[in-house]
Write a structure and sequence with these properties.
Blueprint: H1 2-15, H2 19-27, H3 40-56, H4 65-77, H5 79-100, E1 110-114, H6 125-132, E2 136-140, H7 146-163, E3 168-172, E4 189-192, E5 195-196, E6 202-204, E7 206-211, E8 225-229, H8 232-237, E9 243-247, E10 253-264, E11 267-274, E12 278-281, E13 285-290, E14 293-301, E15 309-312, E16 317-322, E17 339-343, H9 346-351, E18 357-360, E19 365-372, E20 376-383, E21 389-392, E22 397-398, H10 411-423, E23 426-429, H11 435-447, E24 454-459, H12 462-466, H13 468-475, E25 482-487, H14 488-495, H15 500-513, E26 518-521, H16 526-531, H17 536-545, E27 550-553, H18 559-571, H19 574-579
Parallel strand pairs: 1-2, 1-27, 2-3, 3-23, 7-8, 16-17, 23-24, 24-25, 25-26, 26-27
Antiparallel strand pairs: 4-12, 5-6, 7-11, 8-14, 9-10, 9-13, 10-11, 13-14, 15-21, 16-20, 18-19, 18-22, 19-20
Length: 591
């Protein structure tokens, strides 16, 4: 109740014209109205007391002594208000601990890491993430299935117990997000290619991980390709220095030279080097030359299908079809030669109108809707990369100009909620738009008696942002631990890139007034996660993210290194950090 009251006080204060007062208070260095959001009434009361103390200095000793006593009496009565500043701070602290758990080793913020099915390809990835500083693992229910989720959670609990490092589980419900449907899978072939210089000479051979089916590479390795071998004899007969020979999918002779061996939990694995480009498919036979001739030593299995995509350029036409319609269905007409993709959600086709904008894959591609029918939408692409931009399966679709109506929790969400209830510490609720979504969620949680399951409201739509204070007040009626995620990907597309910085600051301020912990999410250290090298802007973004209670990283090839870097930036002891940066002072030569 106190937090809700403070939030209302903060919103009331924001409605007032306080700019002149801010300037006057700044002149006497008394009170910063920008910093009172976590304890509005108590902070204002303290400020008034300080002003009255200043007034006492100007009270005449003979004529206005009684007035001075009255001011002092009022100040004493209001002293309870000043002590409530600490009470409000404690409430924010306790709310954070209820949701995320206690911070370890004098850390100041939690690190959340998103993992998916790829985490099961490595025996040690989960352990390494927790060692590096991860205290919350996030699973997105839009991807994978209960079998994969169960194994991820089992590994998290096992690693957490082994390392004696608490690690909680957040599971995001998929929600009514608009996505492209799955494209027809590409061929089951993996490309192996070495790194070359500008003249085409090999400067670093491709690193290939070889192991038996289901055994991933150690997380500290970043192989260029992974091949599973379905022959146990392979792992007993092969040794470092051997050269494996094979014919690739094109019939080209290629070689893999074994350079290192690793003993992992589930057996033995090898790193092999390949200097020439090769395309390897399931069924490829590997041979080794011995003194008595050439002998088969194993067969490649389980090569995954390559991800299919369409490449869109400015000026291209794209037809979006309902799932279930024929590829030949072209009811809008005269769009021959257009690219095609499907979308399973009927909301999209019922809501959009010609002239409205549409974005794909978190705003990487933009277009304008040229025409609609009951089963198709025709889009003209207005923004893409200079060489075109790929659009693949399960990529986001945003229609910021449309007043689309979603259901709060989808049928899939309700099924997934049963799994979340028995396996996770928190549930992330996607695409919250108004208080009705909160009410439906609360009813479903009450039905299942889930009063201890943490709730994370993902703010990622224009409507969700504009109604954010009302959403918080409605959610705070529940006894469940509560938090907020600033989902900056969809939020930027929906509200405009240029407004994102102000929007995230506003969400932080309003959440602080309600004493609700915030998760800073989307594209945090993305270049570091994907390429191993951060940008300067990413580092300062993380520093700005220290205002939040938790910072989230998405999955990528260099995720363990990114977690370690993030931990160093946000959680290193301030004295240790400052020891390497000497304070700027006037040079002695100027004195």
């Amino acid at each position: 109740m106190e937090s809700a009251t403070n939030l209302i006080h903060y919103l009331a204060l924001k409605c007032l014209v306080t700019e002149p007062l801010k300037d006057d208070l700044a002149l006497i260095s008394l009170l910063n109205l920008e910093m009172v959001n976590s304890s509005v009434l108590a902070s204002l009361t303290t400020g008034i007391q300080l002003l009255e103390n200043l007034q006492l200095k100007f009270v005449n000793s003979d004529e206005d002594v009684s007035e001075g006593y009255r001011i002092q009496e009022r100040r004493d009565k209001q002293n309870k208000g000043s002590s409530s500043v600490n009470a409000m701070r404690m409430k924010a602290y306790l709310n954070r601990e209820r949701l995320f758990g206690p911070l370890q080793d004098r850390r100041i913020a939690h690190i959340m890491t998103t993992v998916g099915g790829e985490a099961l390809e490595s025996e040690t990835l989960i352990t390494d993430l927790i060692k590096a500083g991860t205290s919350i693992i996030r699973i997105n229910c839009a991807h994978g299935n209960p079998e994969i989720w169960s194994e991820i959670i089992r590994r998290v609990k096992q690693s957490s117990q082994m390392l004696e490092a608490p690690c909680r589980i957040l599971m995001d419900l998929a929600g009514p997000k608009l996505r492209t449907s799955n494209l027809k899978p590409g061929p089951c072939v993996v490309k192996i290619s070495s790194k070359k210089n500008a003249t085409g000479n090999v400067i670093f051979p491709a690193q290939v991980w070889l192991s038996h089916r289901g055994s991933g590479s150690p997380s500290h390795l970043s192989p260029d390709a992974v091949l599973f071998i379905d022959d146990q004899k392979f792992f007993t007969e092969i040794k470092v220095g051997d050269t494996l020979r094979f014919f690739d999918a094109r019939g080209k002779k290629r070689m893999l030279k074994i350079s290192r061996v690793f003993h992992v939990f589930s057996g033995t694995g090898f790193i092999a080097e390949c200097t020439r480009t090769a395309y390897v498919s399931s069924g490829t036979e590997l041979y080794v030359k011995r003194k008595k001739g050439r002998f088969p030593v194993g067969q490649v299995v389980d090569v995954p299908a390559r991800e299919s995509f369409i490449r869109l350029r400015v000026g291209d036409m794209l037809i979006i079809s309902r799932d279930g319609t024929s590829d030949q269905d072209n009811s809008y007409g005269h769009t021959s030669g257009a690219h095609r993709i499907r979308c399973a959600s009927g909301y999209l086709f019922d809501a959009v109108k010609p002239g409205e904008r549409i974005a794909f894959d978190d705003g990487k591609i933009w277009g304008v809707i040229k025409g609609t029918s009951i089963s198709e939408i025709v889009v003209s692409i207005t923004h893409a990369g200079p060489r075109g931009t790929k659009l693949g399966s399960q990529k986001s679709i945003n229609i910021p100009d449309s007043n689309i109506r979603y259901e709060g929790l989808t049928s899939k969400d309700l099924v997934d909620l049963e799994f979340v209830a028995s396996h996770a510490d928190m549930v992330g609720v996607s695409f919250i738009r108004d208080t009705r979504d909160i009410i439906v969620l609360r009813q479903e949680l009450e039905k299942r008696k889930l009063q201890n399951l943490g709730i994370v409201l993902k703010i990622e739509t224009k409507s969700g942002f504009e109604k954010f204070p009302l959403l918080l007040l409605e959610a705070m009626k529940s006894s469940n631990p509560l938090g907020v995620m600033i989902a900056r990907g969809d939020l930027a597309v929906e509200c405009g890139w240029e407004r994102l910085a102000d929007i995230q600051e506003e969400i932080l301020s309003v959440s602080a007034a309600a004493h609700i912990p915030v998760i800073w999410a989307t594209q945090v250290l993305e270049s570091l996660v994907k390429s191993g090298v951060p940008t300067r802007a990413e580092i300062t973004d993380v520093a700005n993210g220290r205002k939040a209670s938790c910072i989230m990283l998405n999955k990528g090839r260099h995720i363990v290194e990114a977690v370690s870097t993030l931990d160093n930036i946000i959680n290193a002891n301030s004295k240790e950090m400052k020891a390497g940066v000497k304070p700027l002072v006037l040079s002695s030569s100027l004195s």
